[in-house]
Structure formats: C-alpha cells, structure tokens
Design goal:
Order of helices and strands: HEHEHEHEHEHHEHEHEEEEHEHEHEH
CATH topology of the largest domain: Rossmann fold
Largest sheet: 7 strands, parallel
Helix content: 25-40%
Number of helices: 13
Structural class: alpha/beta
CATH superfamily of the largest domain: Methylesterase CheB, C-terminal domain
Shape: elongated
Strand content: 15-25%
Length: 367
C-alpha cells in the first residue's frame, strides 16, 4: 500500500509542477456565447481561448494549433456539431465537451454525442445572469480541466440498436446473491462515467439490489441519460424523484443540479431529492449520496467510486467503509480520469480496486 501511495503522490507532484495554459477552442455560432465563455475562462486562471463560429472555421484554425479541449455546440450552420465530432474522433481525437441548450431535442443529441466520443456536457451559459459568473463558472472550469486530463478511447459501440431482449443472450452470467430489499448499491462517477455506468448496469441482472447513482451532469440531461440506460439494460433505470422507494432490479440516477440522499424506512429505503449548496464542488455530490447510504444502510450496502476528476466521493466512500459497507474503486487503467478513485484509494477507503469489467461481479458477489 505504501508503494501505491508513493506512486500516486509522485504523479500528483509532477502534475502540480507543470503549470501551463490550456488551449481551449470554442466552436459556437453565437457570438454572445463565444464572448461569455472566453470571459469565464481567462488566461489568469490558466486558459487560452480561441473561438470559431462553425466547424469549418475551427478546422482551419486547428491547422495552426492543437487545442487541449474543444467546447462544441451541436446546432451550427455549414456543418453540425455531431458530424464534426465524429470526424474528429475518427481522424484526430481531442477531448470534446458538448455545450448544449438545456431543453428540447438537443438534450438527447448531447447524450448521443457522449456515445460518439465526447467526454462531458455543459449547458449554454445563462447570459446576463450573475450567478453564472460564480457557481457555474466554477463548474465550467472543473469540467474543462477534467476533459483536458481525460484518457480518450474509441467508442465501443452505439447502443441505440441494442435492445433489452438481446442483452440476456450476450451478457456473461453474474453470481447468485440475496435479493432482500434492504440491500443497496451506491455508485458515483464523473468524467467518463456515462459509458462506465452503462457498462456496469448492463451486467446487472433484473433481480439485483436497488442501485442509486450520482453522475455529474447538468440539470435537464440526467433524464435523457436515464432513458438511454433504460433502453440498453435488463434492469429498469429512471431519474430519481423525491419520495421514490428503492426496489430490486431498479436504478435511480440523481437529477442534475440536485443532491440525492437515501433514508431507511423499515426494511427498504426511500429517496430524498433536494437542492442545496455545492458539496465537494458538485451538485449532485457523490459525497452527499455516500454519506447518506453509510448512515441508512451500513453493512447492507456496497459503494462504488468510478472515473472522474477531483475528490468528490472519496470522503463519502470512506464513511461507507467505516459503516461496514463493502467499497470498490475503479482502477487507473480503465478510468478516463483517475482523480476520484485515486483520492479514495489514498484515503484507504477502498476494500478493492477493480477494473471496470470486474466491478459489477465484485459488487454482486458480496450482496
């Protein structure tokens, strides 16, 4: 463990020593959006922003410099953002963050963009709202830094053609376990987590313990994300609502911009969805979820912390371990960003460190 600790802290020290400007390319046909994004990612905070009104202009500018991260609108003239994204991923993979409107069909398009290789989603800035220059600017900065640190992989597949009826024929069998309603699995993830959660959920049988999950994602997009998971998995997946009861075979995704908490009611659990300040720089926060599960379920729970930048969930996973929950952290090799699991490992919060493909079987084996 000491050798692992030394390896991880050495990596942190080397990263801290390299303070360089991140080159950000904003591709959006709105001059106002380009102006606002440039203002909230200033050079004094470590960003050098270049703008382009459409993908064709962006392509020309990229011949002169290689951006570290691209902030990409999906609806633009000349070439739409999805076409540009697919072209990038095929020819010159660069971390892409989708900058999308909050409502309408663009929410589903943004989720599809994650399938095509984008690493994260942010909402269009609330023009003229002072709050954006405070809390939302902090979230934007964290998202861009996480994207810059992301380990890009080619998308494994497009899941739109996958049906629940075919999954039982293709998934590897999972170990048997007790399906009592007082068993619960809590999962936290951020950058890279949309594909990681899909992988874990696809391995869950229809009678698995109830699952509660936080995926860092803006308000308005978590419902579309839950629908995508629900269409691809044997279990039922839905966006959590205040007062929901946790049932076996069902997974609940924390709504964007809301914290998710678990409370014990007799032999089962209920969910509380509420607003509140950022916790560990996030809302929803994995720490908030994990601490509530530690209190409500203790040894009846499994906690899983997966890919993402920062430390959200590390303290919560430690609280779960102290409450006798079984705890798992995703390993570095299969993380898009190793920050959150790494922080948990350094705290001694993980009973096991597992590659992505082994997380679901490891969780089910102890339930």
């Amino acid at each position: 463990m000491n050798r692992l600790h030394d390896h991880l802290t050495e990596g942190s020290d080397r990263s801290a020593a390299r303070v360089e400007l991140l080159n950000i390319l904003v591709v959006d046909d709105s001059a106002t959006v380009r102006q606002v994004l440039t203002a909230v990612l200033p050079e004094k905070r470590g960003f050098r922003v270049t703008v382009a009104a459409d993908p064709l202009i962006a392509t020309q500018k990229m011949k002169k410099f290689q951006p570290d991260v691209i902030l990409l609108d999906l609806e633009m003239p000349h070439m739409d953002g999805m076409t540009f994204l697919k072209k990038l991923m095929a020819e010159n993979p660069i971390p892409v963050v989708i900058c999308s409107a909050l409502t309408g069909p663009t929410t589903d398009a943004a989720i599809r963009a994650l399938e095509c290789g984008a690493v994260d989603i942010i909402t269009k800035p609330a023009i003229g709202v002072r709050g954006f220059l405070e809390e939302s600017a902090l979230l934007l900065e964290d998202t861009v830094r996480a994207a810059a640190a992301a380990r890009l992989r080619k998308p494994l597949r497009h899941t739109a053609t996958t049906s629940k009826s075919t999954l039982s024929k293709t998934l590897a069998p999972c170990p048997a376990f007790n399906t009592q309603t007082d068993r619960i699995i809590a999962i936290g993830a951020s950058t890279g987590g949309t594909e990681a959660l899909l992988h874990v959920f696809e391995q869950m049988p229809p009678d698995c313990p109830g699952i509660v999950a936080v995926q860092h994602m803006p308000e308005g997009f978590t419902a579309a994300f839950a629908r995508r998971l629900n269409a691809s998995c044997e279990i039922e997946v839905r966006e959590a609502a205040d007062g929901d009861l946790v049932f076996p075979g069902r997974a609940y995704i924390a709504p964007g911009n809301h914290h998710l908490l678990v409370h014990r009611i007799g032999g089962t659990y209920s969910l509380e969805v509420r607003r509140g300040p950022l916790v560990s720089r996030h809302r929803p926060s994995v720490d908030v979820l994990f601490r509530s599960v530690a209190q409500a379920a203790g040894p009846k729970a499994v906690g899983i912390l997966m890919t993402g930048m920062g430390e959200d969930g590390a303290d919560g996973l430690l609280a779960m371990k102290h409450a006798k929950s079984f705890t798992i952290a995703q390993d570095e090799a299969t993380c898009v960003v190793f920050g959150m699991p790494r922080a948990a490992i350094l705290r001694g919060a993980a009973d096991e460190v597992q590659p992505l493909q082994r997380i679901a079987p490891a969780a089910l084996a102890v339930m």
